[in-house]
Amino acid sequence: MTQQIQRKLSESKTARWSVLALVAFTMLCGYFITDMMAPLQDLLQTPVGGGGLGWSGDDYGKFTSAYGWFNVFFLMLIFGGMILDKMGVRFTGLMATCIMIVGVFIKWFGISHNFDGATVTILGTEWGYTLLVASLGYAIFGVGVEIAGITVSKIIVKWFKGKEMALAMGLEMACARIGTGLAIGVTPLLCKAFNNSISMPILIGLILLCIGLLSFIVFVVMDKRRDEELENTEEEAEEPFRFSDIFSIISMKGFWYVALLCVLFYSAVFPFLKYAPSLMINKFGIDPEWSGVIPALLPFGNILLTPFFGNLYDRKGKGATIMIVGAIMLVFIHFMFSIPALNNWVIALGLILLLGIAFSLVPSAMWPSVPKIIPENKLGTAYALIFWVQNWGLMGVPYLIGKVLDKYCITGYVNEKPTYDYTIPMMIFTCFGILALMIALLLKREDRIKGYGLELPNIKKPEEEAKIIAEEMIAEP
Ligand SMILES: C[C@H](N)C(=O)N[C@@H](CCCCN)C(=O)O
C-alpha cells in the first residue's frame, strides 16, 4: 500500500518540479552571495583615499579562502552531512539557510565599518578589522551554503530517484550559475549605482537570501505533506545512519575517485573565476568596469548546457566518459590562457565559452553518479565528505594564487595598484586539470570493475520500474 502511494506521489511531475524550483531558488541566492566580491577585487584593492578598502592581493586571497575555514578545519561540513542523514532535509536545509543569513550579515557589517583602520595580528599575520570581520562572516556563510548544497542534492535524490535525476541536478546547478552570473555581471553595476559602495550590493544579497529562506519554507511544507501522505517519516523510511557509515564510505575507492575529481576539477574553476576579472584586466587589457562581463558568460553558458548534459546522462548514460571529456577540455583551456602571446580579448571570450562547456560536462555527470556508488541513507554524509575534500581546494587555491600573484607576478604599479602577469597562476590551474583527467580515467576503470553503472542511463524504463515495484510489493505483503 505504502509503495502504491509513493508511486502515485512520485508520479506527480508538478510537485517534484515545483520542489526543485523552490530549493534551486534558495541556492541561486546563496551562489549570488558567494561570488559577489570577485568583480569588486579591483575596488577592494583601491587605496582607502580612492574609495576602496586598500586590500592587497594577499588580503583578497585571505578573504576568499575564508569561505572554507570552518568547513575544513572545524569539520562543519561533515557534521552538517551527519545532521542531514540523522535529522532529514527539512531541518538541515532551514538550519543551513539561517547560517547563511547570519554570515552575510556579519560580512556586511565588516565591510561597512572601517574600525578606524585598526589591525590585529593572528598567527603572525596582520589583519585589518574590516578584513577580519568580513572574512569571519564569509566563513560562517560558507558553512551555510555548503550544507545547503548537500541538502539540496539529497532533496533531489529523494524526489527524483529513478526519474529525471541528472536533469534535475543540472537545472539546480543552472539556477546556481544564474546566481554566479548575476554576482559577476551585476555587482559592479550595483556598486556603481550606489556611489561605488561595496557594502550596498552585500545588503541587497542579504535581502535576496531572506526571500530564499521563504522559498525553502514553502518546500518544507510540501516535503512534510509528502512524508505524511506516505504515512512514515524520512527517518523511518530509511535504514538509520550510523557513525560507522563514515568508515564504510571512506573505504570505497569509487568514493575517493569522485572526491578527488571534484576537488581537482572545481579547484581549477571556482578559484579561477575569483581571479578571472583581474585576469581580464591584466592580460587582456579590458576596462575594470567591464572586467566581469566575459567571465560572467561562463555561468550563463552553464545555464543551458548543464541541464542539457544532465538530460543526456539520464537518457543515454556515459557518465564516466562525459567526465573524461570535460577534464580534457579543462586542460586545453587553462593551458591556452597561460600562453602570454594569446592576449586578444576574442581569445578570452572563446576560451571562457569552452570552459562553460567543460564546466557543464563534469558536474552534470559527477553529482548524479554519487547515488550510484553510495546507498541513499549514507548519501548526505557522502556528499558532505566530497564537499569537505573539495573545500580544501576552494580554500587553499585562492590563497595560493593570491600569494603567488603578490610574490612572483607583479609587473608594475598603476595608481598604487599592482599589475600582474597571470602566466604562473594559469599554469597552476592547468596542472589541476591534468590531475583531474587522470582521476577521471581511474574512475571509469573502477566503474568497469565494480559495475556502479556510471555508463548506464539514470531513467529506468517503465518495465524495469514495474519489475522493481512488483518485487518490493512481494517483499512487503
Ligand atoms: C561549491 C559546492 N561545494 C559545489 O560543489 N557545488 C556544486 C553543486 C553540487 C550540488 C549538485 N546538486 C556546483 O557545481 O556548484
Question: What structural category characterises the helix and strand content?
Answer: mainly alpha
Adjacency order of strands in the biggest sheet: 1-2
Element-by-element helix/strand order = HHHHHHHEEHHHHHHHHHHHEEHH
Low-pLDDT sequence parts: 1-6, 233-237
The CATH C-level class name:
Mainly Alpha
Number of domains: 1
What's the pLDDT, averaged over the residues?
90
* Gross geometry: globular
Ligands and ions found: the ligand C[C@H](N)C(=O)N[C@@H](CCCCN)C(=O)O
Q: Note the beta-strand portion.
A: under 5%
What's the CATH H-level homologous superfamily? MFS general substrate transporter like domains
Based on CA atoms alone, the radius of gyration comes out at 22 Å
Tally of strands: 4
Largest sheet: 2 strands, antiparallel
The CATH architecture assignment turns out to be: Up-down Bundle
Tally of helical runs: 20
